[in-house]
Amino acid sequence: SDVIDLTGDDKDDLQRAIALSLEESNRAFRETGITDEEQAISRVLEASIAENKASLKRTHPEVWSDSPNPYDRKRQDNCPVGLKNVGNTCWFSAVIQSLFNLLEFRRLVLNFNPPANAQDLPRNQKEHRNLPFMRELRYLFALLVGSKRKYVDPSRAVEILKDAFKSNDSQQQDVSEFTHKLLDWLEDAFQIKAMDGEKPKNPMVELFYGRFLAVGVLEGKKFENTEMFGQYPLQVNGFKDLHECLEAAMIEGEIESLHSENSARSGQEHWFTELPPVLTFELSRFEFNQALGRPEKIHNKLEFPPILYLDRYMHKNREITRIKRDEIKRLKEYLTVLQQRLERYLSYGSGPKRFPLVDVLQYALEFASSKPVCTSPVDDLGASAPASGTLPPQIPPSTVEQQGPSSSDVPSTSPVQRSVIHKPFTQSRIPPDLPMHPAPRHITEEELSVLEGCLHRWRTEVENDTRDLQESISRIHRTIELMYSDKTMVQVPYRLHAVLVHEGQANAGHYWAYIYDHHQNRWMKYNDISVTKSTWEELERDSFGGYRNASAYCLMYINDKEQYLIQDEFNKETGQILVGMDTLPSDLRDYVKEDNKRFEKELEEWDAELAQKAQQEKLLSQIPRAPAPSPAPVQAGEPEYLEQPSRTDISKHLKEDSVQAINKALAEQEDRGPEAIMDTKVCTTVMGVVQK
């Protein structure tokens, strides 16, 4: 295409360039059907998506590389031990750490002994691989108890799980599915132990499983079913807190039909008959979008309390709960009516713009009380004109304008007269007395007095009505909140033990856990290898949702009255608390000691390597450096590019001097005796390097 020079002043060139640009744009649109603006927007969106993906990868690296310095991997004092992310396994770390910090669960795993006749078990039990997993889980828990490492590697246990999932290593597992699988395996493992005759009951079932009674009506026929549950699923969408989720989950269909004899409607209630010591709620934050054909995450805010009272959901309290539910329903209906009334006061009017009624009355009062002040618009214009206008400052503009054209036969040539003649604004017909601001044109003192009295009275009435409505609404809210606070409804407290958090979208993201330290009375954040102190405020920000794309997807509550869940183990003979390695069975204690020895060896080798490097640097610093050869003076008449000594010659001299210095150091250290053996080895190593 032709090149158009736009550096000159030729306007024709500019017009040709514009025409050429439009022609190019039209041709591109005809070929692709996409305008330049749409292409630009597309490029910006693509760049934004790429940046978001890159940011997510930068923020959450999924594979941790070990630091070469073992001291960076050393456990500090008695800090909790983290778990290494071995490739999209943050889901594993979050669940395992939550369970490990349940001391009763930890004891069950650590003290698990495989049955003696494991080889004679049915084939299907082996296929589940629960016993090999239990073995690796015991080793992993033992390392979390007594390791001297800052974090440990869970690869062996993870590989068994991944084989069972039959998934690609790059895919992140759904945590609910993993937790179900884990509990199933543990239940199977302890069931095998029960089959071996050691215990009649399965401790995993007793710890994590409860029962509820389903009472309902199906096509006019009543029914009752008792069902067992582990993790209890709850819908999040459309609810503001955990109690609302539970209320919705416990009632399905037309609940009124349960109490009527002749009804064809269907509905049912769920009542807990037996709660597990560890109660886990699955928050359904993922749903499938039929229109888009892909899963999406629900980022809605959902609040949950640190202490959850479950009395209202117990079967034994069903009668009083039903009464309270009916009362709450009636209060909420009344609350809706009051809120609608209040809305009419706070948003008054029939048009698109609405205002509080008390403000409308105040504006009317101010209008009625305003006095009309009429002036000419020209006066307003003159008052606002700058002093340095076309008129001399000593002559007011209004005066000049009123004079009009001169009646003299001799036309004046003064600037003032020409200015007046050529002002079309002053010669147009304008009402001489427009009001400066809105105000009543005609109102008597008697009318104004009556109107002001009415507006004052109406405004006061509206203020009182608004205040009464707001107080009534607040009072009803408070009544609903306290409906279940009486003594009979706070007998089943559950304390929040762990919150499992997901950050990201439905198809990708990062997992971590907030776990309550029941002995230190503080929250801890377990994020793969990082274990740090936290607060309830940080937990709220990351877990409630609605703030960013991080939110809780699993809540683990424990029965606050069952202290054995979090109590330390005691020595039966001395009565002292067992901590650390003392809590481990002998086989696991030996396993951890061996691993700690290997880590201590890493530390020793690192120290020796540093000492060797320090000695090498010290000896090299003592070696005299050969002086740089001074350039020979240039004789008159000789060329300035005299040949310089070659690098080979200089290196040869340096090597000879270095070898002599090292030999001298060796001779001195032989006289010092056996304590110089290490230094002698270092010297020999350095000399070998120098001779090369």
From TrEMBL:
One of its GO terms (cellular component) is cytosol. Residues 405-416 have a biased composition (Low complexity). Residues 379-417, 624-650 are annotated as: Disordered. It is found in: Nucleus. It is an enzyme of class 3 (hydrolase). Residues 589-616 form a coiled coil. InterPro entries: Papain-like_cys_pep_sf (IPR038765), Peptidase_C19 (IPR050164), Peptidase_C19_UCH (IPR001394), UIM_dom (IPR003903), USP (IPR028889), USP25/28_UIM (IPR054108), USP_CS (IPR018200). Its main location: nucleus. GO terms for biological process: protein deubiquitination; proteolysis. Keywords: Coiled coil, Hydrolase, Nucleus, Protease, Thiol protease, Ubl conjugation pathway. It comes from the Eukaryota. It holds the Pfam family UCH. SUPFAM superfamilies: Cysteine proteinases. GO terms for molecular function: cysteine-type deubiquitinase activity; SUMO binding. Residues 81-560 form the USP domain. It catalyses: Thiol-dependent hydrolysis of ester, thioester, amide, peptide and isopeptide bonds formed by the C-terminal Gly of ubiquitin (a 76-residue protein attached to proteins as an intracellular targeting signal). Its EC number is 3.4.19.12. Belongs to the peptidase C19 family. This is Ubiquitin carboxyl-terminal hydrolase.
